């Protein structure tokens, strides 16, 4: 993976909430627990999911067109009328003017070495000189008449086109614009939105652009927060136990139940990142997608030494989607346990209701819901 791989993870979090959810815990697992597996798996998921558009039909996405737009329409740090050698010299000169802390904790060289399909710092160095030196937009800003309604949508967690840049965009576009910031959202609002908020606002605007100022955009501020991974446990002993509400269970059994629920949540959070219908557990076992709303676990190991089998099912729609897990958990030195868990898929403060039946008895309790990522 290397440091540039970490740069790519940090950069791609602009569009992938799964990276936001897991990166901190995965980094701590490596630095504090010498566990590289969580971070390596997150990077592998990035390659399989965020970079999946390479090789797809051009009717879906054209990398070549993206590069042409990047090199010819976007401002570069060097003139394309210059030779490749001159362009490189101009780029290096621009780099030297940056404070050393510009991309901290990364160096400028490390940050600029990121995948060039994300940020085209160097990808256009060898692009042919344009035969027609035609600017992409003629004239000077603002480009639109004052009467033109303009709706601008942006995610609060989007670091590629962040909300901080909106005033500049509005000044250049002109028109009569309104910016709507979506809490806890990343890049590209309204595409695959599980809540329907972005799509509903876009549809309302297209239906009646003149009513731009009266659009009801209250749902944008109510997008549930991303529920992050608390920690990748290195042993069952380090797993925080389920908080017992009733019944009898040993501390070890309550930890086993919590590990089982975390494993089920981890399996579901990775559903869109897996290849086909099969995924491997972090430390062993497997997960199989039966359909779009049901997974089957077979000795799935998220916590080393804790093997979890059973089913994970999602019901409902939008922000009201509910996860239900029916599980069998095993760990060395403990009697097998039957664990059930139910929790809301989205929302940062959600909790899971858990029951456990084991050799020590039957108990009910609760715990923080496992990772929840809006796809």
What's the helix and strand layout?
Layout: H1 2-12, H2 17-33, H3 37-50, H4 63-72, H5 84-96, H6 108-112, E1 144-155, H7 166-173, E2 174-182, H8 197-207, E3 243-247, H9 251-269, E4 278-280, E5 286-291, E6 294-300, E7 306-315, E8 322-331, E9 337-344, E10 351-358, E11 361-368
Parallel strand pairs: 1-2
Antiparallel strand pairs: 3-11, 4-5, 5-6, 6-7, 7-8, 8-9, 9-10, 10-11
Helix pairs in contact: 1-3, 2-3
Task: Please characterize this protein's 3D structure.
The structure is a single chain. The protein is α+β, with helices and mostly antiparallel strands. The chain has 3 domains: 2-112, no CATH class; 144-222, no CATH class; 236-368, Lipocalin (Beta Barrel). It contains 9 helices and 11 strands. It has helices at residues 2-12, 17-33, 37-50, 63-72, 84-96, 108-112, 166-173, 197-207, 251-269, and strands spanning 144-155, 174-182, 243-247, 278-280, 286-291, 294-300, 306-315, 322-331, 337-344, 351-358, 361-368. It has a 9-stranded antiparallel sheet, covered by helices on one side. Strands 1-2 form a two-stranded parallel sheet. α1 (2-12) crosses α3 (37-50) and α2 packs antiparallel against α3 (37-50). 30% of the residues are buried. The mean pLDDT is 92.
């Amino acid at each position: 993976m290397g440091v540039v791989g970490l740069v790519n993870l940090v950069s791609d979090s602009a569009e992938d909430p799964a990276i936001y959810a897991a990166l901190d815990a995965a980094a701590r697992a490596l630095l504090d627990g010498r566990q590289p597996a969580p971070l390596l798996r997150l990077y592998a998921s990035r390659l399989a999911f965020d970079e999946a558009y390479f090789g797809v039909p051009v009717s879906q996405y054209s990398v070549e067109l993206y590069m042409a737009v990047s090199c010819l329409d976007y401002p570069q740090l060097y003139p394309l009328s210059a030779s490749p050698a001159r362009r490189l010299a101009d780029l290096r000169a621009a780099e030297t003017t940056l404070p050393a802390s510009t991309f901290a904790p990364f160096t400028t060289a490390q940050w600029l070495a990121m995948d060039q399909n994300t940020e085209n710092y160097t990808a256009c160095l060898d692009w042919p000189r344009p035969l027609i030196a035609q600017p992409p937009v003629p004239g000077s800003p603002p480009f639109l008449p004052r009467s033109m309604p303009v709706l601008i949508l942006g995610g609060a967690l989007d670091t590629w086109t962040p909300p901080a840049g909106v005033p500049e965009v509005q000044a250049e576009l002109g028109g009569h614009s309104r910016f709507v910031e979506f809490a806890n959202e990343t890049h590209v609002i309204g595409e695959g939105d599980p809540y329907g908020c972005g799509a509903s606002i876009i549809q309302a605007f297209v239906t009646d652009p003149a009513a731009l100022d009266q659009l009801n955009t209250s749902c944008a501020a109510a997008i549930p927060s991303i529920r992050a991974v608390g920690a990748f446990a290195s042993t069952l002993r380090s797993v925080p136990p389920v908080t017992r509400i009733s019944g009898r269970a040993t501390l070890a059994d309550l930890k086993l139940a919590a590990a089982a629920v975390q494993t089920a949540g981890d399996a579901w959070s990775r559903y869109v990142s897996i290849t086909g219908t099969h995924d491997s557990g972090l430390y062993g076992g497997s997960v199989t997608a039966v359909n779009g709303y049901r997974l089957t676990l077979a000795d799935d190991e998220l916590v080393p030494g804790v093997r979890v089998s059973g089913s994970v099912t999602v019901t409902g729609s939008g922000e009201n989607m509910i996860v239900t897990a029916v599980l069998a958990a095993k760990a060395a030195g403990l009697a097998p346990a039957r664990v059930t868990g139910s929790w809301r898929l989205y929302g940062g403060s959600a909790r899971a209701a858990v029951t456990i039946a084991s050799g020590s008895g039957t108990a009910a309790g609760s715990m923080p819901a496992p990772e929840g990522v809006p796809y």
